[in-house]
Amino acid sequence: MFLYSCTEQPSSSDTQACAEYLDNSGQEDQFLGGIKMIPISTPKGEFKVWTKRVGNNPTKKVLLLHGGPGMTHEIYECFDGYFPQENIEYYYYDQLGSYYSDQPKDLSLWDLPRFVEEVEQVRIALGLDESNFYLFGQSWGGILASEYALKYQKNLKGLIISNMVMSIKDYNEYSAKVLAPKLPSKVLDTILSYEEKEEFSNETYLGLITEHYYTRHIIRMPTDSWPDPINRGFKHLNPDVYVTMQGPSEFGIKGDATLLNWDIKDRLKEITVPTLTIGAEYDTMDPKHMEWVSTEVQNGRYLHCPNGSHLCQFDDQKNFFTGLVKFVNDVDAGQF
């Protein structure tokens, strides 16, 4: 386990470890600086998805599953500030339909089981296995990571489910009964009036949610202070994927979104791989539910971010990364 920083004054052995971590010579992706376009077979043909490796470590490799659906890898750029000094190899990844990856227009591709098979194809292409493969999923990525584990956990060394409850019904109830009543009454009444008319794409509706809900429960900062990776991520979000699976906003899953009835609470006991669940005090997801998930899986740990919301890698960064790094290092050292 390496606890040094390459910016401090390392010992000679630490310097050697830094050099090995940063050395891309002999890597098949050296020409593109760690980038690999991976062919993905789907029921509608073959497409390519974008990945980028950072670092080298034969026993600690983390594949990052972004949220959305249809968001981008950009929301994890802050991992650059924490993983390298811990000697953790990690992979940025735009899922099919997202940013640098192919963006086919066939809506039938935005299907949870197909995404699970996509992750498995990415794993194989990157050479990840049970000796080194940690799967991190946040929000929609947490849905995808948990479904992947239910089918392919034999390939995993560790699983991280961040900011995602295991039932959309529970998610919607928490939003409606706990979080929504905390909004100013006039704002809530206006939002609910648009929802009653199913005017989910109305600019006023979306503007009110962004101003009054997102700044409390998605990322606890005024919109004009949002980190650049978040702004770019929203700018590059693919609405076809997002609306098809999630609906028009983070204010619960609405309409005919394909994830509306998703629920795996009764299957969590099937997950045996070391699992970290991450919850945040001000999240759109109930942190008590996230803690409960850690007790339902067979080998779990819970990380609470007391200052954070849905994107706690930014608004509670110290607690988030301290706990996440400790989990990866503990599993790697056999001390979990």
UniProtKB/TrEMBL annotation:
Keyword Ligase: no
Top-rank lineage group of the source organism: Bacteria
GO biological process, one term: proteolysis
Molecular functions (GO terms): peptidase activity
InterPro entries linked to this entry: AB_hydrolase_1 (IPR000073), AB_hydrolase_fold (IPR029058), AB_hydrolase_sf (IPR050266), Peptidase_S33 (IPR002410), Pro_imino_pep (IPR005945)
SUPFAM superfamilies per the UniProt record, alphabetical: alpha/beta-Hydrolases (SSF53474)
Active site (catalytic residues): S139 (nucleophile), D283, H310 (proton donor)
Pfam hit, one: Abhydrolase_1
Keyword Lipoprotein: no
GO CC annotation terms, alphabetical: membrane
Residue span(s) of domain AB hydrolase-1: 62-316
Keywords in alphabetical order: Hydrolase
Protein family: Belongs to the peptidase S33 family.
Protein name from the UniProt record: Proline iminopeptidase
Taxonomic lineage from the root: Bacteria, Pseudomonadati, Bacteroidota, Saprospiria, Saprospirales
